[in-house]
Amino acid sequence: MPLKTVMHIDLDAFFVSVEQVLNPALKGKPVVVGGSTDRRGVVATASYEARAFGVHSGMPMATALRLCPQAIFLTGNYHRYAEASRRFMGILADFSPFLEPMGLDEAFLEVTGFESLHKSIYEMAQKIRARVRAELGLAASIGIAPCKIVAKVASDEAKPDGLMQVLPGGEAAFLAPLAIRKLPGVGEKTEAILKGLGIKTIGILARMPETALKHRFGMYGETLHRHANGIDHSHVLPPAEAKSTSRETTFERDTRDMVFLSGMLRYLAEKVGADLRRYGRQTACVAIKVRFADFTTLTRQCTLANPTDADQYIFQTGDSLLKKTVQADKRAVRLIGIGVSIINEPGRQLPLLNGMEQRWEKLNRVIDKMRVKYGFSVIQSGQTLQLRKAYHSGSSDFTHPPLQIS
Ligand code: DCP
Ligand code: CA
């Protein structure tokens, strides 16, 4: 098996760290992000200062309050975390195209052979950490190893704000002294069974005969044995090709204001168009979704004469569907959404573009570049600008989670 190099990058205390960037007064303090403390909320994450009091993810907020009453309790801001995540993944993608995101704040990066570009993989990891720190104000811990499982454990061991490299041949020795719970995939149940067998460290697990583990855990026993020995042949896999992409939003108040609805649709269409261009793909089918105040939901779709990735064409198609749907009805609107199917073949048919479409294409490419640099809301059309009035909070992201990409 040829030698591989894999990085696992994981942001420290993610939700809390984003809150600390938004409000620096929270730095260095016990901070907990999660549900409400009086009802049945649970802790999403805790700052390392709060962790010192025993507070951890998944714990009831009420327990956290008892363990660390002086902590600052926040309910969180999913939009900000999604935005930070998007920018984090963007930085990683600048370093290697072989990127496998694992949730919002962690990813594997395959970096085999990249040392020639950065002196060493260690240097490369330092550059990634420096960029994440400079551009997002967040601490990223990184593990480097010859396989995914060991890279993941190494990034955990490197925390907080650290970097750890396990060299080829050193995998088993690195894992050996660690508690079995540190092995990814070993949860509470497996841990209890292994402890019952007298297995406390990964080293002891690694020396167990494979047949014994297979007898106890079936196929999973084989995987456990391999992983405990620092062997993992799985590849860093980019996410599966998307078949469609969509955005939708629910309004704070139901409305029939057509100017407002079109403005929102324009904003959502721009997000969808940006997805297509980021994937280097086009669409030939636009669909809209309208949910009325009584929760009745309608979808309408339209096939395009020519494939496109232009916001303007997507919006115009969606907007005429929207107008027909809303005007044919008397009810107020609670939610609207727009989605496009994705043609999964790269390349465009330039000769088919008319003059207008060519101008859109150029314009959109410039807009995308500026948005990558300065954020999505740096450029707004007349239609989306008027959304700011309705969203007095001054927020520039008007969608609600989940931002669905399917
Ligand atoms: N999260 C959550 N509920 C959980 C666990 C995590 O909502 N039970 C969220 C909040 C975390 C984010 O996911 O900030 C990332 O989870 P991690 O397990 O990576 O934990 P952190 O990033 O908070 O801390 P660290 O990676 O430093 O241990
Ligand atoms: Ca994390």
Walk me through this protein's architecture.
The protein contains 17 helices and 12 strands. By secondary structure, it is α+β, with helices and mostly antiparallel strands. It folds into 3 domains: 9-150, MutS, DNA mismatch repair protein, domain I (3-Layer(aba) Sandwich), CATH 3.40.1170.60; 173-228, 5' to 3' exonuclease, C-terminal subdomain (DNA polymerase, domain 1, Orthogonal Bundle), CATH 1.10.150.20; 239-390, DNA polymerase, Y-family, little finger domain (Dna Ligase, domain 1, 2-Layer Sandwich), CATH 3.30.1490.100. It is globular and about 70 Å long. The two termini are 35 Å apart. The site of 2'-deoxycytidine-5'-triphosphate has 13 residues, from strand 1, helix 1 and strand 3.
Overview in brief:
This protein is of the alpha+beta class. Helix content is 43%, strand content 19%. It has helices spanning 14-22, 48-51, 61-67, 78-95, 115-118, 121-136, 148-158, 171-175, 188-196, 202-207, 210-217, 219-228, 258-279, 311-327, 355-374, 382-385, 387-390; strands at 6-11, 31-34, 43-46, 72-74, 99-101, 106-110, 140-145, 163-165, 244-255, 283-292, 297-308, 333-341.
